[in-house]
Structure to design on (97 residues):
């Protein structure tokens, strides 16, 4: 786990793979003496990809899963970029937009 984290794997991805909470993964990494990144800065390319994927109809959750970040991070970045977010449940209501 430590080797994969140091190589660039996210805490979220490791937690999902092992069926553990992200705080548990962080605790393991801290105990191993690994400096844990608390925030990952998204690149301009990643931000552009977030907008493109969101405009194509993917949800913030789906985008987050693809990029290995939390849906809340995706939503926050979209708002910062001036993208109007869709209402929750827009797919099930049949609404598009």
């Amino acid at each position: 786990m430590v080797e994969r984290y140091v190589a660039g794997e996210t805490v979220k991805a490791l937690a999902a793979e092992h069926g553990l909470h992200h705080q548990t993964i962080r605790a393991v990494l801290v105990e191993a003496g690994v400096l844990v990144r608390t925030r990952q800065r998204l690149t301009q390319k990643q931000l552009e990809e977030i907008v493109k994927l969101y405009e194509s109809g993917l949800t913030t959750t789906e985008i987050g899963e693809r990029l290995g970040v939390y849906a809340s991070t995706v939503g926050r970045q979209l708002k910062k970029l001036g993208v109007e977010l869709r209402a929750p449940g827009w797919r099930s209501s049949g609404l598009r937009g």
